[in-house]
Write a structure and sequence with these properties.
This protein is α/β, with parallel strands linked by helices and 341 residues long. The chain contains 12 helices and 7 strands. The strands form 2 sheets. It has a 5-stranded mixed sheet. A two-stranded antiparallel ribbon has the order 4-5.
């Protein structure tokens, strides 16, 4: 894709937000771009070589999919796992396999030098698949990046608006926000992860059935399948309690949350075998990591070095079992990661 085509696609995206700004000239440019990008010009006198070119294009797509999603070494189970949480990938793979099958059928069942209505029908279906593949490969990811940029802006505005508001004092506010925008929490957990369950029951027989212990979020590492537990408090939750002989203890609420998430880990480990057999997504419980998102370090301490030191000592003392990150640190990481990306 050259620079001119890229600029035309950006123009198309802008116009899609407000079609009232479109002119006849814009529409002509969009039509030209679509024709160039998606057109499959099959000459009836040269079917064989053109089908060969399409076959090569589809094979390259398959290689790319295996390389990106199958792991190293390639494992079809890893690909299936990715598809379960990625509808776009599933559709892309489906169109790719259908195109490959159509090419195989055309080559084995037809003489490409002779006119044939059934052949024309197969070719039409092939062209439709190729157009969808090209769209998913180039245009849709570009639009997604535009939407993602808007989502980043919205997430940071939400944080700025609710960090100290009455609404921000409610755990449900942040649980709902992270449920709809899990990319924020992904900055906390290392590696490629997918969202496994919100309000997951760690006790009992299933993740969404009855159980007396419930964790706010359960994340699933895409490669190792290991589970991570995440507990969400609020930016207004106190990090430290009263002073004690020149230092500070953790607040009662934060200490209680540490005990809570560690108990959840024990319950999940205890009931793992009864849960994994009925879970739609396979997962492992190999010393699962625990995370707590709580408080606002910058606002609570406001330059108080003694309090910062006390909090950091407590945090490092439990880091082997629980990772504690404050809301302002979380959103700062989220912002810097996406600017760098």
């Amino acid at each position: 894709m050259n620079d001119d085509e890229f600029e035309r696609i950006l123009q198309f995206y802008k116009l899609s937000e407000d079609l009232k700004t479109a002119t006849n000239k814009n529409l002509e440019e969009i039509a030209e771009l679509a024709y160039v990008k998606f057109g499959v010009d099959l000459d009836e006198y040269d079917f064989a070589s053109q089908i060969a070119e399409l076959d090569s294009e589809i094979r390259d797509v398959v290689v790319g999919l295996k390389s990106k999603y199958g792991g190293e070494p390639y494992d079809v189970e890893n690909l299936k796992l990715e598809i379960r949480g990625n509808r776009e990938l599933g559709l892309h793979l489906s169109n790719t396999l259908r195109a490959k099958n159509l090419i195989d059928e055309i080559r084995s069942d037809f003489d490409l030098d002779l006119e044939n209505l059934e052949l024309a029908s197969k070719v039409a279906k092939l062209v439709s698949c190729v157009v969808k593949i090209r769209a998913r490969k180039d245009i849709i990811p570009l639009i997604h990046r535009g939407l993602y940029a808007e989502d980043i802006k919205s997430a940071l505005e939400f944080w700025s608006r609710n960090a100290g508001s009455d609404l921000g004092k409610l755990e449900s506010t942040w649980q709902q926000e992270f449920s709809t925008r899990k990319s924020i929490l992904e900055r906390v957990i290392e590696g490629r992860i997918s969202f496994l369950q919100a309000q997951a029951h760690v006790g009992g027989d299933s993740l969404n059935g009855r159980g007396d212990k419930i964790t706010d979020y359960m994340f699933h590492h895409s490669d190792t399948r290991n589970v991570s537990l995440v507990e969400i408090k609020t930016p207004c939750t106190k990090l430290l309690g009263k002073s004690y002989r020149g230092t500070y203890a953790l607040s009662d609420e934060l200490s209680g949350t540490i005990a809570q998430v560690l108990t959840q880990r024990v319950e999940l480990t205890k009931h793992f075998f009864s849960k994994v057999h009925i879970s739609e997504i396979p997962f492992e419980v190999n010393a699962p990591k625990c995370y707590i998102v709580s408080g606002n370090l910058g606002k609570e301490f406001e330059g108080d070095l003694q309090k910062k030191r006390a909090f950091e000592m407590h945090r490092q003392a439990v880091v082997a079992a629980v990772t504690i990150i404050t809301f302002d640190e979380l959103y700062d990481q989220f912002s810097k990661f996406n600017v760098a990306a």
